[in-house]
Amino acid sequence: DVQLQESGPDLVKPSQSLSLTCTVTGYSITSGYSWHWIRQFPGNKLEWMGYIHYSGSTNYNPSLKSRISITRDTSKNQFFLQLNSVTTEDTATYYCASYDYDPFAYWGQGTLVTVSA
Amino acid sequence: DIKMTQSPSSMYASLGERVTITCKASQDIKSYLSWYQQKPWKSPKTLIYYATSLADGVPSRFSGSGSGQDYSLTISSLESDDTATYYCLQHGESPYTFGGGTKLEIK
Questions:
Q1: Beta-ladder partners of B57
Q2: Contact B94/A99, CB-based, under 8 Å?
Q3: For the segment A7-53, what is each residue's pLDDT rounded down to a tens digit?
Q4: In angstroms, what CA-CA distances link B15 with A6, A54, B62, B67, B87?
Q5: How far is residue B57 from each of residues A33, A67, A69, A105, B53, measured CA to CA in Å?
Q6: FRET partner for A81 with CA separation of 20 to 30 A, picked from A38, B39, B66, B67?
Q7: Which of A59, A62, A103 sits opposite B34 (nearest CB)?
Q8: CA distance B58 to B51
């Protein structure tokens, strides 16, 4: 089975960058699927942020386009989220997830990131 | 962006009752519609994908229907374990967008 696990700081200061890692086990991120970041705000609204395809191409939510970057380290079977210039509005639980014929069949457990001074 | 209007936002239902949750897309999404169940402090779990396909391991009391702009999730006979928040997702056009969620509780 594919397993995903998010990691990274749980507190980020306003104007700084948020950086998260998703470590994938049970499947190579270069073999197939696309690899996504999704966040859930307090109050439970879900927002799709973007993905990196197994080919290496990326696609981002235009609402974040100027601030977001998704990259990968194929040697470690990890992909990454960087979100720049964060504000308190970026406080959320961040999930990584995989997309195949069953969209988002596999999710990480989520990591709560709080943006606060 | 495609807007997903999900209803109701919350509901109470009795054990054994038939429950239906709906999502309306702001344009035709050609059945690129999934349903997820989320329990407190857990990640969402796929119930239905491509509008009608039951995800692996999901009980057969869950079913999906719809086409075009209008979709629904039905639980044929509510069980206590179904207490959760349910979300729809359109993944036919980027940016993918979620419905606002339906919190389902047992009466």
A1: none
A2: no
A3: 999 999 999 999 999 999 999 999 999 999 999 999 999 999 999 99
A4: 36, 44, 14, 29, 21
A5: 21, 38, 34, 11, 12
A6: B39
A7: A103
A8: 14
